[in-house]
Amino acid sequence: MSDDTSGLSPSTDRMIHSRWRVTLENVRSNPGGALLVLVLVVLAAFPLLVADPTLQHVFIQVFFYATLAQAWNILGGYAGQLSLGQSIFVGAGAYTSTLLFVKAGVTPWIGLVGGMLVAMSLAILIGYPLFRLKGHYFAIATWLLTEIAQVLVINWAWASGAVGINLPFRGDSPVLFQFNSKAPFYYISFAIAVLAFVTTYLVEHTKPGYIFRAIKDDPEAASSLGVYILRYQLLAFMIYSAFSAAIGTFYAQYVLVIVPDTLLKIDMAVLAMLAAVLGGKGTLWGPLIGALILAPLAEYARILLGGQGRAISLAVYGFLIVSLAIYEPLGLMSLFRRIRRRI
Description:
By secondary structure, this protein is an all-alpha fold. It has 15 helices and two strands. It has a domain of 200 residues. It starts with 9 loop residues before the first helix and ends with a helix. The radius of gyration is 23 Å and the shape is globular.
């Protein structure tokens, strides 16, 4: 029998202490990983600790724009294609799931998958001719396509045209993607955002991510090495469209109304791009940092100042972007890395 007061043998005791030392050493050598786990745990527990629906709504907005910004980041930050057509794919997800629900009684969960498939099909259809354009010509073309899509939907009588669609609320029903409180919407938007960031992490550390960056830095050199550029551009476009459509379905179920004048405007794409650029495009955490700044700013400006809040928030956005362009062109992530190196 062992004399150890814990009741464990000396070898077991040594093994436990050794594992604790390894764990502590891993935390010291990788504080970012430990911080990430802590942040995820806090965010997952947030609705359980804070019952205020306004705060929950603000975080839902953060996850919404973080997902949009990360989707844009894959195409614009990694693959170097500056798109202003994100609202097309958000609208594809919202209208597909909503029409299936209203016209055929299909649960929006199935509509979410259907919307992603529709958006990816549109990405292939649109991207194949559009990727022949370069630089700002591509951005202008996606902007014009957004305007065309808005006009088409406004004149689409079967989808209620300019009036939009009001989704019927049938009570608290997880199967129908409808809830009486904001907490379930919080967790769904959180899950979509986490999936977008995990996908970006996998892309960043695998062959497609390296090829995306090669195309962004020097497409002629990448092509000379045998890279089929169009194939990888379409892949980035499809990922971008899929997550945009997924969060579009969430948007429709969250607000229970979709109107083309609101949903298919360029504003949503611009805010997503601003969040990614502010935080640091081409980085994993840049879109989240940008969304953590822009989404609460816009929401609280709207709550406190009403209609004038939008103008003030846009002025602040402009100030932040101009300041970064002058002092930190690579975004806040670059600033944080410099501070970390100095520390």
